[in-house]
Amino acid sequence: xxxxxxxxxxxxxxxxxxxxxxxxxxxxxxxxxxxxxxxxxxxxxxxxxxxxxxxxxxxxxxxxxxxxxxxxxxxxxxxxxxxxxxxxxxxxxxxxxxxxxxxxxxxxxxxxxxxxxxxxxxxxxxxxxxxxxxxxxxxxxxxxxxxxxxxxxxxxxxxxxxxxxxxxxxxxxxxxxxxxxxxxxxxxxxxxxxxxxxxxxxxxxxxxxxxxxxxxxxxxxxxxxxxxxxxxxxxxxxxxxxxxxxxxxxxxxxxxxxxxxxxxxxxxxxxxxxxxxxxxxxxxxxxxxxxxxxxxxxxxxxxxxxxxxxxxxxxxxxxxxxxxxxxxxxxxxxxxxxxxxxxxxxxxxxxxxxxxxxxxxxxxxxxxxxxxxxxxxxxxxxxxxxxxxxxxxxxxxxxxxxxxxxxxxxxxxxxxxxxxxxxxxxxxxxxxxxxxxxxxxxxxxxxxxxxxxxxxxxxxxxxxxxxx
Length: 468
Ligand SMILES: Cc1cc2nc3c(=O)[nH]c(=O)nc-3n(C[C@H](O)[C@H](O)[C@H](O)COP(=O)(O)OP(=O)(O)OC[C@H]3O[C@@H](n4cnc5c(N)ncnc54)[C@H](O)[C@@H]3O)c2cc1C
Prior knowledge:
By secondary structure, this protein is of the alpha+beta class. The protein is built from 14 helices and 19 strands.
């Protein structure tokens, strides 16, 4: 809030908080529209969760889909995201996302020069393959090109500057921010400074997946016992500062668990490459206690994650040689780390995990019949075109236990990335994009749709703020 006893230390047209996909997309777009932009980042390097992501981006109607003769359009992507989101997605935001997704993907290629692999992947909940992976299978591939772009546009990025609170005028318009410079993350200390903005602030501080007290308030199951794939500094302070000036929070309890996580490694790790890109498409997940399937492996993340959590102990995913070779992915790191184990026969696999071999074979035989007939009457799993019965050794197995991965809730925004208050009115001078904003995904985000969201709404925020 505006306090009489301070002086502005400096002024910029636009202040962007955060150096993930959303913040950098916004900064690039605003600068391209000829305004002064300052980017601040609380940590001593850029990237947030964006840089550790897989870099998977989803879009319909792309050149790669055309090449592989995949029929898709914005309406189908809308429907898939709405189904996964249990209809809780804000229609205006979802429409904006799907309408601009192809353009956002194109922008990363044409404007940033991001190289993508020549493949299109299908993830749970998408009805057609529409996910693209950058070379290196890492968000760093995209993020480093965004950083190069900020350099070529002379956009200053200041590290160890932590945003603390918004400064508003008598009419409630955001006119600046209090920050801590030379910020020390461990002691949360630094030197107070006040930055005045002529046009506005774009908040792109990410989600709250690692903020245990805050997330547990929203969903009491998510205690410190549940690990996270997020960086430890993925906390809610930016969001909470917006709440203090009456910004509206939406759907904060909608927190996604990554169903493809392994309890046998820390953080995101190497297991998800096997689980999310191979196992869910071609394999089965069983409860080791009764060796039965219990969920649609290709369901959306919330469905699968919640189902695993509800059985109360890690479950087991099993796929075979055909699955791994057909996928084209290299899972040697997961094997080397012991997160994925290989077995010459189902007998060996059953012995290793102390499973009843007879029951295991029954489960796999039943599933194999479903694959041959092209439908799964038990859980409605989509049998992908190149799926084959699980028969060819070696067999691959991985233990699965969900980790907090993504927060669908956040600040209420308009389709123009303007932050709303609790009366549904726009807070002048304040924009939000990326994971700090809420409502696009409803109850469950589909794989690869977060990066699309960051770029679509980050760019919109950058365009909007510069036009003020
Ligand atoms: C391991 C992993 C893999 C993923 N893979 C994918 C994928 O393949 N496809 C996909 O679509 N999604 C994926 N996601 C989700 C996606 O990466 C994130 O939702 C997205 O990157 C968030 O971007 P963002 O810009 O909103 O926030 P972030 O990238 O988290 O950036 C926020 C930045 O703001 C900074 N910040 C926060 N508070 C302050 C403050 N007070 N002052 C100054 N700076 C601050 C943070 O330090 C951080 O650098 C993945 C997530 C994880 C964790």
